[in-house]
Amino acid sequence: MNQNMRIRDIVAEPGTKKTGFLQIADLYGYGLKIPLMIVNGKTDGSVLSVVAGTHGCEYAGIETVMRLFTKLDPNSLKGALLLVPIVNMPGFLGRFAYVNPIDELNIDSLFDGAGAKPHAPKLGRAYGIYTSSLIYPYGIKGSVSELMADALYGEVVSKSNYVIDLHGGDFPEEVEDRVAISNTANKTVDSMSESLGRCFGVRYMFSDDAQNSGGGLVGKANRAKIAGVVAKAGDSGKLQEEAVELLYEGTLNALKYLKMLDGTAKLGNPKTIKVRHIIKSNHAGVYIPKRRTGDLVNKGDAIGIVHDLFGKVVDELRAPASGLLYFQHYNPSVLPGDIIWMLGEV
User: CATH top-level class for 7-272?
Assistant: First the structure.
């Protein structure tokens, strides 16, 4: 096996498409690879990376990238598309929520390297799904997941002018469709990232203040002056056609905005969310939601309860502020410290 294959080994001629793999490691005969698809336009233009499957059970983004490759005509494209349908192949094949099952690390938290985040999160398994965040000070630097993050960024995204990272809701999650940008204090990069987000026509845009680290793949790219956006659609570990259509049409719209495809881009006007709150359970038990994902609530509103095995309510979850319930961990079985809701102030 060639463990040193790089993107230059998979380059497509102008006006053609090509597929290949980035070789990550040979794990005692198990070849760990990241699939890569290239659509190389017939004429010069920008290079856009579109990435999905960092979390292997967020299926709408995975299908979107495959659909882009099969449907786009390279003769109508200016520039090139670098398409990664599934980063986390072990998670996809093993149907593992959140993490790479080989080392139980969240690849999306490792793009800044072990030095920037020495105590990266692992996720503790509870009742068959990953729920409780734990912190491990070992197994990160040089780990399989860090090798995957390094290869994805170094061999694909760093070769691009722009990046779109597709996500959604994993197995135990319901989410509101949205986009997210990581500001950098570079007005040119931040303005372009915001415009790419507006291409998806969603109701809400999450905007983070400039930071020296964090923000996953797009955060790292933005700090390197590669504008980009995270687009999230679909949930519950299902392949929902409406979510695929949202991500697919949004990406085509972005290609038009970047002048990589002919046509006029239509930009939405989403509401910006900058302040977010996490609502956790305080007790083990059975969780019963009182509101639905996507609801707008007022501060103090009841949004869920937890009762014990005898039916007694042991925890009442209330909105800590007025805003949008954009994330719910819908599984009824909960432990102390589990994240149940996320709320954004609109």
Answer: alpha beta
